[in-house]
Amino acid sequence: MRVEGLQECQNDSTASTLFVFNGELKLDINELILRKKIRGDCFRLLSACFYPPEKELYLQECLFQNLTTALRQVCPEAMVFSKKMEEAFLHYSGEDLAVEYARLFVGPYELKAPPYGSVYLDHERRVMGDSTMEVIKIYKEAGLSTDEDFKELPDHVAVELEFIYYLIHQEVEALENSEIDKALSLKETQEVFLNRFLKQWVPRFCAKMKEGTENEFYSALADCVLSFLSHLDGAKNFDLIIGLGKTSDQGV
Fold this sequence. Notes:
This protein is of the alpha+beta class. Helices cover about 60% and strands about 5% of the residues.
């Protein structure tokens, strides 16, 4: 079976499914799944950076080293910014980071970089606008609901990044279970959400961050996110997985 220039072929020495795109041999299924997991980790780790900074926890969890390792494999051009993030994070005190986080994203005064999609997507430039309702609908369709103890809005940048991680995680599980239709549906949801929401407003949000701060950590974070999202725009995806689990003796 072929889809948009993709065709499957079999490596005679293994049961792995390989894929050809425009005549060029590409990743086998196990490598492709691994790359998806790494890409998902990038979304998860970037999401964590938009919660209130917990310096000791971030360092204990090696957040920035893990982000750099992941980016090295799927988006090397963003890796320079994750390294700058780590250097800056070590430079500032926990109090300095918390104060700058509040000044940019929380208040009490005018926010330098509102972290909510509706501020950028809706004409009213307010929180909980029409686009927020669309986001909530997509979350519900994906089987998710808002935790009552969670105090942020559904279209907060950290929540939307984490949602893409969740979809990738679900897609990987489907691929590992040979549930191809489910995997393709989850991939489509990712693309819709990225194109309709994150890619539409996060670049403007990151520009606001860079305009509104002299803090090197948050400036590098903005650059890292912009570079990562730009990479997603330019990268060729070989993610349509066809005939998962077939072996060469099945006459493929």
